[in-house]
Request: fold
Amino acid sequence: MPLVNAKEMLTKAKAGQYAVGQFNINNLEWTKAILLTAQENNSPVILGVSEGAGKYMCGYKTIVGMVNGMLEELNITVPVALHLDHGSYDGAKACIEAGFSSVMFDGSHYSIEENIEKTKELVAICDELGLSLEAEVGSIGGEEDGVVGAGECADPDECKMIADLGITMLAAGIGNIHGKYPENWAGLSFDTLDAIQQKTGDMPLVLHGGTGIPADMIKKAISLGVSKINVNTECQLSFADATRKYIEDGKDLQGKGFDPRKLLAPGFEAIKATVKEKMELFGSIDKA
Ligand SMILES: [Zn+2]
Reply:
């Protein structure tokens, strides 16, 4: 099945009280692992690409070519969206041109007026082309491609202003952080999330920084309207752990263990396991 936008899968998720995972990709192994896991578990999935990862993978056109090729060659039939993560205005336009089916415009570092203006322009473009658009209000803590945010809580009235522009899904800061959570993390602000959902109604809400949020908090967030959860660091950690174990066990020195197809295999399997675990937790299995 060709790429789809994220609208239908997230509308269904919000109505059915589960969430679709966005798993960020870094290379061929990542992409293949996530697509195969989605297919094996009959789950919709969103492939996330940050602008940094876009550069690393030789640009958006390379990514679109790789993903479209895999959808066909791997016979992927579950809904898959290819989505720009934390895009700039220009980055969003470049991804739209390259053939992404979904983009995020992160205008959270602009004034609310400028965020609204730029988001509105992108709503018009995405509507015309049938793409989904994610917008953000309130910065999410931790590091987003070099920008360090404080993890503030979004203003529910500002969330409503952005939601009313006709976007597909809304990311709002509720105390969540990218990367590993610090020991003294205060947890998610469910009061903020509840207030945002009350103001934005059916709008699917997006939880960034899904790595390390305890399962009970994830479930509660889903019950309060979160329909898309972004996972990035957790796949990186499981890939690194599995690869380190392979090297530490000296397997690269045995026979043809140095063959990249062997050397990267444990990391590939580790990503698959992490993605499956998240799909189970988010409730998206058999929801394709
Ligand atoms: Zn994020």
Remarks:
- The first helix runs from residue 7 to 16.
- The chain has a mean pLDDT of 94.
- Residues 7-239+271-282 form a domain with the TIM Barrel fold (CATH 3.20.20.70).
